[in-house]
Amino acid sequence: MSGRPEQKPPPVGTNWRNWLFMGGRGAGKTRAGAEWTRFSVLAGRMERVALVGPTLGDVREVMIEGPSGLRAIETVVENAPVYNVSRRRLEWPNGAVGLVFSAEDADSLRGPQFDAAWCDEIAAWPDGEAVWDMLQMGLRLGPFPRCVATTTPRPVPLVKRLVGGDAVVTRGGTMANAGFLSASFMDHVQGKYGGTALGRQELDGELIEDPEGAMWWRSDLDARRVRSAPDMFEDIIVAVDPPATSGASADACGIIAAGVVQAEGFGRRCFILRDASAQGLRPLDWGARVAALAREVGASRVVAEANQGGEMITSVLESAGCDVPVRLVRAALGKRARAMPVAALYERGDVSHVGVLAGLEDEMCSFGAAGFVGSPDRVDAMVWAVTTLMLERGGEPRVRALF
User: Fold this and answer.
1) How far is residue 64 from each of residues 103, 116, 249, 354, measured CA to CA in Å?
2) What CA–CA distance (Å, rounded) separates 241 from 376?
């Protein structure tokens, strides 16, 4: 198996059970996991492999069918595996099988047993440690059951646990794989994120702990995270922080869905349901994204910051098919001042995230710290959502609606 040193498993003879490959975006993590799995199966070392991703869709679209997935990397037609959709099994001609699991359902790993596992993007698993523990209980076949985990690093409990001694760790950066990536992508991300904490994490593959001065801490978000949303809400909205311009170098459009409910035993609580934020979209594209999310979550209205664009925002959303009322709000305070009351609600336990919202949480846990650069578009949208649902009755922070 060819590849860079960090893409290869620990040397033969090393007594390892778990191998963690942490790398930046595009560093070849998926390819490394797929090649290890393929080689182990074709060499006859492994016959029952657990394939675990953040969701069932991720396993199929990335680990199996993706450009670096198990089907795409096989060059010998006679060895190509076939995916049995109804049984959620990847079947090799030599009799080996890959069994598909979602990290959203730890209990699905109770009972099955394996001699190998490939786990992808473990930092994005909603309940990472519980899923990992259930998987480890099932790795009990053969003389040397082994697991490879591939991920972009985030300082979540499971990743910190593996780095702390539960796995052999290799690391790789985006730049090391630049020859296989778009030159314009490399120029853009290096220019915008190079040298920042986010760049060190997402590009260099470093495990960055929450920086001093950040307004949110991952440990607090993890403690209040829920795996599923309540069945009923008093209100659901989609909040939007539109970009001033469009194009590859433009700020992202922050798009956050949130709901509020009176939870028995907890009082009034806000749940962050979705993060549909995206960068580089044209107005009609982000408008369509907002409209689709509003329909998906059953939002009563869209709340959009009007500091950039004013009435144009309403026109964009209407043209994109948004069929719920649009309320325009204008900020009277700076970003940090607007965020402070919302951060206090998080600290008090009045806001929970449904699942892992990696992009939003990375931005939250950098915002306010020394060295933070760029526009906190996801944070802005989240702040508008929580403010609208939880704080407007008290009048803080100050918001003026434009009708």
Assistant:
1) 16, 16, 32, 26
2) 10
Asked if residues 22 and 155 have their Cβ atoms less than 8 Å apart, the reply is no
CB atoms within 10 A of CB 97: 19
Task: Report the run of H or E that residue 385 belongs to, with start and end.
Answer: helix 377-386
Please report the domains of the chain, with CATH numbers, ordered by start residue.
Answer: 5-202 (3.40.50.300), 218-402 (3.30.420.240)
Q: Which among 329, 294, 296 has a CA at the least distance from the CA of 310?
A: 329
Interatomic CA distance for residues 74 and 34, integer angstroms: 10
Distance (Å, whole) CA 363 – CA 386: 16
- What is the residue-wise DSSP string for 5-59? GGGSPSPTT---SEEEEEE-TTSSHHHHHHHHHHHHHHTTS-SEEEEEESSHHHI
- Euclidean distance between CA atoms 229 and 270, whole angstroms: 10
Q: How many Å apart are CA 25 and CA 181, to the nearest integer?
A: 10
Tell me 62's DSSP state: I
Amino acid occupying residue 37: T
Handedness of CA 156, 180, 204, 336 (dihedral sign): negative
Tell me the C-alpha distance between 135 and 111, whole Å. 10
Pairwise CA distance, residues 219 & 148, whole Å = 25
Cα atoms found within 13 Å of the Cα of residue 181, Cβ hemisphere only: 19
Q: Would you say 141 and 113 are in contact if contact means Cβ atoms under 8 Å apart?
A: yes
Contact call for residues 203 and 329 (beta carbons, < 8 A):
no
Q: What tokens appear for 35 in the block?
A: 């090649």
Global pTM value: 0.65
The β-bridge relationship of strands 301-305 and 278-279 is unpaired
Q: What is the per-residue pLDDT across 356-398, written as a single tens digit (0 to 9) for each?
A: 888 899 889 888 776 666 678 999 999 999 999 999 854 333 4
> pLDDT digits over 134-177, tens only?
999 999 999 999 999 999 888 888 999 999 989 999 988 888 77
Which two three-digit tokens encode residue 156? 């979540």
